[in-house]
Fold:
Amino acid sequence: MNAAGIIFSNLHDRHVPELTRTRTMASVPFACRYRLIDFALSNMVNSGISNISVITHDNYRSLMEHIGSGKDWDLARRSGGVKLLPPFITAHANVHNELYSSRLEALKSIAYSINEMKEDYVVLSDCDVICNIDLTAVIHDHIEHGADMTMIVKRLPVVTADERSRTIFEVDNDGRIVDCIKQPEAGLRDKDVSLNIWVATRTYLQSAVQDAIAHGYKSFTHDVISKNASRRNYRVYRFGGTYADIYSMAGYFKESMALLSDHERWDSLFNVDNRPILTRVRNSPPTKYFKGAQVSNSMIADGCRIEGRVENSIIFRGVRVGPHAVVKNSILFQDAYIGEDADLNCVIADKNVIIRERVRLSGHPELPFYIDKSTML
Amino acid sequence: MFMYKKKECVAMLLAGGQGSRLYTLTERVAKPAVPFGGKYRIIDFPLSNCVHSDIDTVGVLTQYQPLVLNEYIGNGQPWDLDRNYGGVMVLPPYQGKKGGDWYRGTANAIYQNLNFIRRYDPDYVLILSGDHIYNMDYNKMLEAHKQNGADATIAVIEVPIEEASRFGIMNTDDDMRIIEFEEKPPQPKSNKASMGIYIFNTDILTDYLIRDEADENSAKDFGKNIIPAMLEDGLKMYAYPFVGYWKDVGTLDSFWEANMDLLGENPVFDLYSGKKVFSRTEARPPQYIGASAELSDSLITEGCEIYGKVEHSVLFGDVRIEPGAVVRDSILMGNISVEAGAVIEYAIIDSDCSIGAKAQVGKSRAAGGKLTIVGAETEISPKQVVPDGIMVAAGSTEYKKEA
Structure:
């Protein structure tokens, strides 16, 4: 594939502040064994993209560890592969260091890397939308229409309040973008909502970034799209498949639980022929269910030891649920330990959480009880 | 090669055997590539042991049905054996200037690969086989070998004396020096069974292999020829006693038992304690346990979807158990579907099989049933009955009936 990839790992961190306190949006755990970036990476790899740059901002230790050499996505390549682009900080006395705060500034900060790319097209993706998409089709559509940029969108009959942080594209009858609306109000009808994944012609992207540097532009939607929509060929590509949008903690909880209630949804994300979602392999033993374990409607990763009861829950790798413990409607991240007779309902337990014997915790679906990483309760 | 430092110890893993007593399980794969314990293959155990023992150079000698094994080992990355110098190397029989030859016995296999060993100039050679399940630190054995100033050290494990006549038995003096070796003795004098794990000083091994190769009457076998010859010459040979779990999975019954040893509250062999066993795994989706599922005392792996009942069993990846189906005392290898109402009792089902609705495979172990085997890529049609003690060959259409 004649395309390179760029992934924004930190944009939208503030949507799930608890989960991103020590990690990037890209490395937020999801669905038992994945991190959000796995979807962006897998979509690209499955479309034959093998030169991927990941732009980071802060807190990217967990992301570096997750990606490692890139081997698990077949991205440990002699040329290309995956590389992290950390923020550029210089010790030069006359330069004022500032971390980027917007998408366009992030692109400006990696202008050098974009100029180095040899591929004719670039696919850019955030990490807040989960979907399994055939990017090849989007790139072909982009080429066919001679577009400068093709934004992947979801056509919504009614825009809800959950979409308030998204961008909406106003489109003419040919699918060409004429304007965009930021922070849309709820209730708008028949709109194309951005999935924050798009294809750009590399030379165009280069010139847009150089232009932004020259003029000190800051906003991608305002200074690039709105300003140039009448002159440039910006288009939308309507994606009809499943997508999950992580816009808040409640949204994270809801989208996770939706995997359990809707099996077709699960299949359309994880069981698509020739488009597997790849992730870091941890080499855990199989999960062990002891005598007396009761498990129903739950998704469980390998390496767990289940002695108690697990219902409607998502259990990550290496979790232990002790005898007579009850875990309901909850999400337990890697290596959580649930002691004997403990009782959890609507809980999100971050990595390495320890819940002691007989502790009872309950949240609400709209306000799940979040337990910080490595906490003992 | 001057820039690389020599290796102290190189491991040679004999993985060419057919494992004929595993019958249909080794019809298409070599014994070391037979799946084990939900997500492993037998060879993962010696390979992981090597890595945990700081042995980073391993030659894997393959011969019988090597395709799956070769692909599985690949560049060795899952075991951290993709090294710039050393690492894991698959060593098939090859053709040389004087013609080529299959491996004719364990000793001949190593003999044909003396050049591989010489490249690394090791002081010691560790010989391993690919048919045992165990966790062992070979380093400790090597330490003992050095401390004893031995020419050869053989790892032994104490077996019940009544079973000793099934093994190669080492008779030693009080210092563990081997004074006699008896292959499957009818009246065993000791219960120290050879584990098929040897450490030799490289020079001595080379010397004996060359001599053995020249001997036309030799069976070219470590147990039959090399070890007896060394003993006869009075070399310093020591037994290294290993304490821990060790199981030969050379027969269907022992293979089933070894898998079941992983189960239970306090398993005989615990995958969760001790050093991690590495394996090549693909990223599969997590397992999904449906509302109607009943699970007890089982190991279940990624990619499985369970809606039925699973008891005291080991399930590999991508197994689907439909509602009302029952799996008990069984091993189900990867990519198997068990349709609604089917019953599998005390059986080993090899990969890529489908068991039709209300079909019955095997008979309850509690009711005196015998172990039943279904080979790979076999379809059992709905309502078919596979009697206990039967072995259905891989790809058999015997139980495939048109609806």
